[in-house]
Amino acid sequence: MTNPKNSIADKKTIPSIYPTKTKLQVTVIFFVILALYLFSMKKTTEDMVNGLDGALGNMFRVLAKFFPPNFEILKAIWNPMLETIQMAIIATTIAAIITIPLAILSARNVTTFKPLYYITRIFLNLLRTIPDVVLAVVFVGLFGIGIFPGILALIIFSLGILAKLISETIESVDMNPLEAMRASGANTLQMIWYALVPQIAPQFTSLVLYVFEINIRASVILGLVGAGGIGLTLNQQINFYNYPNAMTIIIVIFITVIIIEYISTKLREALL
Amino acid sequence: MIEFKDVNLVYPNGTQGLKNINVKINDGEFVVIVGLSGAGKSTFIRSINRLVTPTSGSLLVDNEDILKFRGKDLRKLRTKTGMIFQNYNLVKRSNVLKNVLAGRLGHTGTLRSIFNLYKKEDVSLAYESLKRVHIDEKIYNRADELSGGQQQRVSIARVLTQQPKYILADEPVASLDPPTSHQVMNYLRKINKEDKITTLVNLHFIDMAMEYADRIIGMRAGEVVFDGPVSEVTEKTFEEIYGRAIREDDLRGGAEQA
Amino acid sequence: MANLTLPPKPKNSLYKKTKTIIILILVAALYVWTFLSIDIDWARAMERAANNFHRVIPRLFDPDWSAMGDVSDKMFETVLIAFAGSVMAAILSIPLAFLAAKNMMGIFSVIGKWILSAIRAFPDIILAVLFVVAVGPTAFAGVLAIAIGSCGMLGKMFSEIIEQIDMDIVQAMQANGANRIQILFTAVFPQIIPEFLSYAIYRFEVDIRASSILGIVGAGGIGTMISFASSNRNWNEMGMILLAIIIVVSVIDFASAKIRSKIV
C-alpha cells in the first residue's frame, strides 16, 4: 500500500487465483442466501411477544420447568410405548410385503415396459410428498382415534420410502446371472428367484430395518394427532402443562429409539 | 446338427450383425469362431440359443427351425444348449452348489425350484460335474470367494449339470490369465471329446484357436470369411480374417505352462 | 439310488441351523406378541369408516379454493422455517462434523459421534414441543427445532465426507510448513465444500417435509392449519392444504435435484 504504483503493476501481471466470473457468482449466491436467511429470520420471529432476545433469555428458565422428570409414571407409560413399537412392527411388515411389486415395477432394468415404469415412479413420488401426519389426520378422521389409523398412515408413509430405496437396489444388480439363467432355459419366475432374489435379499432386509427405525420415530409423531401410542400420552401431558411427566416420556422415547437403532445397526452390519 | 441357412440379423439401430450366413455344424465338432471384436462372433453364437433373434433366413437345430420358437419351445431349446460367458455370470452371493444346480432350472418345475427341492439325481449330477472340473472342495463357498479361473470352472460345471447337447462359449477366456485360459480350454476340449457335446467357442486369440479347434470359422463384419479344418489354416488365413497383419496381442501365449 | 454320490453335508451345518432356528423363533415370538397384544376394535373402526367415508374422502379431492390465500401464506411460512432452520443447521453442523471426524480429532471423535447420535435420536417433533414451551408457540420455535434436529443427520453426513478426504494433500501442506488454520482452508475445505453444499440442499428437502408438520404442536407453518382443519373436520380445507404441500414439496425436490446435480 505504501507504493501504489507497484500494486497497480501487480494487478496487471499477477492473475487472480479464481476467474472473475466464478468469484462474482459465488459472491452473488452468498449474498442471496444471506438475504433470504435474514428475511426468513425476521418473518419467523415477528410474532414473538417479547422479541427474539426476550425469548432466548427466557428459554432456559422455561426449560427448567421440565426438570426433574417424574419417574413415578414410568409404569403407566410402559404400555403406550410398547404399543408404539407394535404399530411400527406391523406397519413395517405390511409395507415390506406391499413394496415388493411396487419396487419391481419402478426398477428400470426389470420393468422394460416404459409407461408402467413411469406411472409407478410418479405414484411413488407423489406418495412421498404427503407428510405422515396428514395421512394420520385423514385416517383418524375416517376410523376414529386409535392405533389402527396410525398403522395405516405408517404403512402408506413407509411404502413410498421403501419402494424407492429397494427399486434403486434392484437397478444396481448384476444382470449377467439373469442372462445365464435365461440361456439355460429358466422361466421368468425362476430367473427372479435364483438370480435376482439372492442379490437383493440382504439389502432388502437392511432397508426394511432402516424403515422400521424411521417408523418408530414417525409413530411418536402420529400419536400427537390421535393415532395411538406414546405420542398420544405425550400430547395429553403437554396439554395439561404437566412438564415433568412429559420429560419422562421424552426420555423414554429417546432411550427406546437409541436401543432400537443400536440393535438395528448391528443386525444390518451382520447382513451386509 | 446346427444349420444356418441365409441367416441375416439387423439390429434395431441399423447395424448388420449377421450377413448371409450359411454354415453347417456337425455333431461332436469342436468349432472355434475367430474374428476381431465387433465381427459378429457373439451375435452368431447367441443366435443359436436365441438370446438374439436373426431377422431373416432359417436356423435349424436338430432339423427344427428355431427362429419361430416362442415360450415353452424356446426354453426347451435353451435347456439343450448350454452357455459359458466371458464374465462367468454366476450369482456372486449364492454358494457354488446352488449356482451349479441353477443349470437344472430348465428341467425342474417352478415350484420345486423355488423351494430348493431338487431331485437327488440332480444334486448328485451337480456334484459329479464339480468333481470333473476339480472344484468340488469349494462346494459350499460363495461364488465371490473364488478366483476368476475357479468361477469359470464353476460355470462349466453348471453347463455340465444342464446336460446339454451343445455348448456355446462366448469369449470364455477373455478375462483370464494365460495358464488359467489353457486350463479352461482343456476342460472344454475334454468334455467335447468324452461326452460328444458339440462345442462352439468364440476366441480372438489365434494360437489358442489353432491349438484346440477341430474346425475354424473366421468372421469379419458379420460375414463368414473362412470356414475349414485347422489343417488348412495358416498365418495368412488369419491375416485375411483380421484384415491386417498379426500382432503380438492376438496371441495368448503360455501354452507350455498349462 | 445306491450309485448316486451326494455331496458332503456342509461342515458348520449344525451351528448354522441352530442359529437360523433361534432367529426364526425370536422373530416368530415377536410377531405373536405383537398381534396378540395389539388392541384394535375392528368392528368400531369399520363402522366409523363406513359412516365417515363419504364425509371425508370425496371432500379431500374437492379442495376449498377460498382458503387458498391463507394456505399459501402458511405454506410460505413453512418454506421460510425450513430455510432458516436448514441454514442454521448447516452452520452448526460444521464444527460438530469436524469434532466427529476421525481423521481430524483422533479418538476424541467418539465424543462428537455420541453428540450427533444423541441429537438424531430426538424426533423433530419432540424438539418442537420443547421449543414451543421455551420460546412460545411461534414459527421461530419451528426454526429452532429444524436447526437442532437437522444438525444430527447433517453433522453425521459432513463428518463422513471429512473422513473420506485425501489426507496426502494435508500432509503435503504440513510439509510446506502451513499451520492448522491454513491447512484447513487450503487442503480441507476445497475437498469438502461441494459435497457439503449438496447435502445441505438435500437436507432442505427433508426439512420442508418436517416443517410442514411442526405446526400441529404450535411451531408455525402449514401444520397449524392441518391441526385446525382436522379438529373442525374441514376436509375441503384439508384437501387444499394437501394440494399445497404436494406442489411445494415436488417443486423443491425437483429444483434441489437439479442444483445438486450441477454442484457435484
From TrEMBL, chain A:
It is a multi-pass membrane protein. Pfam families: BPD_transp_1. SUPFAM superfamilies: MetI-like. Residues 81-264 form the ABC transmembrane type-1 domain. The keyword Cytoplasm does not apply. Its main location: membrane. GO terms for molecular function: ABC-type phosphonate transporter activity. GO terms for cellular component: plasma membrane. Keywords: Cell membrane, Membrane, Transmembrane, Transmembrane helix, Transport. The chain crosses the membrane at residues 21-39, 85-105, 133-166, 191-212, 219-238, 244-263. The keyword Transmembrane applies. InterPro entries: MetI-like (IPR000515), MetI-like_sf (IPR035906), PhnE/PtxC (IPR005769). It is found in: Cell membrane. Belongs to the binding-protein-dependent transport system permease family. This is Phosphonate ABC transporter, permease protein PhnE. The gene is phnE.
Automatic annotation (TrEMBL), chain B:
One of its GO terms (cellular component) is membrane. Pfam families: ABC_tran. It comes from the Bacteria. One of its GO terms (molecular function) is ABC-type phosphonate transporter activity. Keywords: ATP-binding, Cell membrane, Membrane, Nucleotide-binding, Phosphonate transport, Translocase, Transport. InterPro entries: AAA+_ATPase, ABC_transporter-like_ATP-bd, ABC_transporter-like_CS, ABC_transpr_PhnC, MetN_ABC_transporter-like, P-loop_NTPase. The keyword Translocase applies. Residues 2-246 form the ABC transporter domain. The keyword Nucleotide-binding applies. This is Phosphonate ABC transporter ATP-binding protein. The gene is phnC.
UniProtKB/TrEMBL annotation, chain C:
One of its GO terms (cellular component) is plasma membrane. It comes from Perspicuibacillus lycopersici. This is Phosphonate ABC transporter, permease protein PhnE. Belongs to the binding-protein-dependent transport system permease family. It is found in: Cell envelope; Cell membrane; Membrane. Its main location: other. Signal peptide: none annotated. The chain crosses the membrane at residues 21-38, 79-101, 122-148, 181-201, 213-232, 238-257. It is a multi-pass membrane protein.
